[in-house]
Amino acid sequence: MVATRFALREIRFAFKQFRIFIACLFLGTAIIAAVGSVTTNIAESLSRDARIFLGGDVEIETNQRLLTDEEMAYVVDTAEEISMVSELRAMAHTEDFTESSLIEVKAVDDLYPLFGVLETNSNLPREELLAFKDGHWGAVPLEAIATRLGVDIGDKINIGSLVYEVRGVTAKEPDSSNAGFQLAPSILVSSNSMEDTGLITFGSLVEYNYRLRLADGTDAKLYEETIEEAFPDSDWRVRNKSSGGGSAQRFIDRMGQFMTLVGLTALLVGGVGVSNAVHGYLNSKTNTIATFKILGAQSETIFQIYLQQILIMAAISIVLGLFVGGALPFLFADFLESKMPIEISREFYFAPLAVAAFYSILISLIFTLWPLAKAKNISARQLFRIAISEPGENNIPKNYLITIVIMIVMMLAMVFYTAEYSELTAYFIGGMLASFALLFGTGILVRKGVSYLPRRYSPALRIALSNITRPGNSTLSIILSLGLGLILLTAIALVEFGLDSEIERRVETDAPSYFFLDIQKADHDSFKEHMLSQEGANLYRTVPNLRGRISHVKGVPSDEVEISPEMRWVLRGDRGMTFTDEVPEDNKLVEGDWWPIGYDGEPQVSLSQDVYEALGLVLGDKITINVLGRSFEVAVRSVRSVDWGTFGINYAMMFDPNMLSDAPYTYVGTLKSTPEREAANYQAITRNYPNVTTVRLKEVLENVQVLLLQIKGAIDVMASITIVAGILVLSGAIAAGHKGRVYDSAVLKVIGATRMDILKAYIFEFIILGVATGFVAILLGTVAAYGIVVGIMELEWTFSLQIPLITVFAAIVMTMSIGMFSIWKAMSVRPAQVLRGI
């Protein structure tokens, strides 16, 4: 009670000194609470409207084939309603063929959508949007396509052999989140119009999705299991409504965990600020604490007084952070809804707020107990002299050290318990802790190193070097506070530079100008002749293309095969495949040999090295491939090294021609054009062959760059938040050493130093610390970027000298800018006023 009474009495005058403390805790708490609240709101919305996002209670997906009569009869007997949506890539052209663009054609029937509402800017009834009227079928493009082609309501566009009328632009497509990443925006058309387009022929890459409405009360997951058991050998993919919005949910989960780690990083960086604030506050209370001790107060009582004060401040910071973070879904709900096809639930959820509070309480205690426990046993005599000398070694009592370690373990346990991607979390936490350790070691080395530097040439430099090593110096705090954020900025900038350089290098060397899809067998020779007749065209190449899936590996069903998550794609759905008599020029055999020309033996396959190793195969092992409903058991004859980073035509699976040459297939091709003829050749190709899907590399790169910019934006937010936290900590560190600077300034003035001498000394000090921090950030950031670019992305390393120079400059500017404010205040105090207080 005594400690509480004194704590409440003193706290009225403590808020000014705890501003940095409150800001650091508030920032980290608000970020974690906001990320948790937003992701939980989105997850609840996705769960609530799951069948809207999937398009039905159950979806059956097939590739290049419709359901068989037997399969369809089963579905008709067991479902209330069935809606079919077919999707394929094609080209859309303006009426006069002056503008063209790659599109995803989404052909829907009259029941679409089974759930949810299709919204367009024309507000026409659903039955009029796509119907045949006045000699034309209707089409509804996304805004991106309408803008790219320059069309609006009433304009005509060519898709395949048909001319469609634009009846509206999509404002909200209920099942759009089900599509995942698309190479091009979609256009809605009626499925009844597709036969006349000429786009669907044998071998066309068409995906059919049957959306089912089940009877009320039917268990969708049980239905999925039942239909899979009824047709165990079918090559379809069945999903129930719990998968609705799956791609969106996975993206939200990953970004949520990523941004939670951002908040935790900001909290940890802020923890240094908390420690500095506590240290600075205790320094300002040395006379009070010494007086308490002289009057007989026990160390434990004094410890409780200041611990309670700090906890009250922490509680205020955390509550404010929780309030702001929890309110974010309400404040930004409209913005989120404009970016995603969902309705945010706009609710407070206890769990994410509790997690944020848990992290914040632990961080505040971990970084508070250390300076409090260290100061607990300092004698009154040492306290009165603390401003002008080190207090000496005061070991932290063992019980406090054990408590701190337990809280660190609790925090890490919670991080990994709530993490869905534990490996990523482990790398992130490990890298962060390693960075802290290296920055801490750098601070110690700087303090030790400057003591050996010569000091006789410049009085200002001598004072600056002494300030770095003097009692109560801020060296460690400054390096720790800025270092982590600058490491992140350097690493991010170098990774981005590496990606941009790699794309530019490949585009300039071996990248084709166009990709061609769905070249029909009958058109192959004439198409080739037309391509090679174009001015500036060269390096034309085509290969047969068809799709199939791996159904068994060494006799084991594909869904039971153990494979690493990053290679799961090879067993998920249909994959592109080809057949050839010769090894592709840009592939290299690493095991086995190629079948001879004219081979007519048992079916054989050549696999890419990454697929071969992921499936745990050896030469001669057999896998089962399902192509258009027919299964082939093929033996692995060879393994190829494939560079997936090129813009050429590459396949994970290549078969002998004897196996697949009689199957229905189309061709895919590439063509390189001179830059000055690229646009003109593109128009000529799309005008003469409107049914061939022509993809300009320029458009693909634009779509990829949009995605990369979104990812870059999220990463930049992370670095910016860490920098903000670092600036707050830096401010606190400099503020904590303000009292010592006031004494230094007063003494220097008494012995004859001018303001300019003192100013130069402090400028030298902050330049030295800024340069030291910048160089460490360059080293660690470069190492991290190299590991990502070379180790993870497997790209060629490219270094930019400009980025490190900017890093060092930023470190100097930030330390100078914040430090000058403290310096000016220290130099403004009169010496007599300071010396009377000693």
Characterise this structure:
The relative contact order is 0.12. The chain has 27 helices and 23 strands. It is elongated. It has 838 residues and is of the alpha+beta class. The protein is 54% helix and 17% strand. The chain has a six-stranded mixed β-barrel. Helix 18 (475-509) runs antiparallel to helix 26 and helix 25 (755-792) runs antiparallel to helix 26 (802-828).
Quaternary structure state of the chains depicted: single chain
What's the tally of helices? 27
Largest sheet: 6 strands, mixed, barrel
DSSP strand count: 23
Which stretches are poorly predicted, pLDDT < 50 over at least 5 residues? none
Rg from C-alpha positions? 34 Å
Structural class: alpha+beta
Mean pLDDT: 78
Question: Shape, please?
Answer: elongated
Strand content: 15-25%
Topology:
Layout: H1 2-11, H2 19-48, H3 50-54, E1 58-63, H4 69-78, E2 81-94, E3 100-108, E4 119-120, H5 126-129, E5 132-133, E6 136-141, H6 143-149, E7 156-159, E8 162-166, E9 170-172, E10 186-190, H7 194-197, E11 207-213, H8 220-230, E12 237-240, H9 246-284, H10 286-294, H11 299-331, H12 333-339, H13 350-376, H14 380-384, H15 398-417, H16 422-450, H17 459-469, H18 475-509, E13 514-519, H19 524-532, E14 537-553, E15 556-557, E16 575-579, E17 588-592, E18 604-608, H20 609-614, E19 622-627, E20 630-641, E21 653-655, H21 657-660, E22 666-673, H22 678-688, E23 693-696, H23 697-736, H24 738-750, H25 755-792, H26 802-828, H27 831-836
Helix pairs in contact: 1-11, 2-9, 2-11, 2-13, 2-23, 9-13, 9-18, 9-23, 11-13, 13-15, 16-17, 16-18, 16-25, 17-25, 18-23, 18-25, 18-26, 23-26, 24-26, 25-26
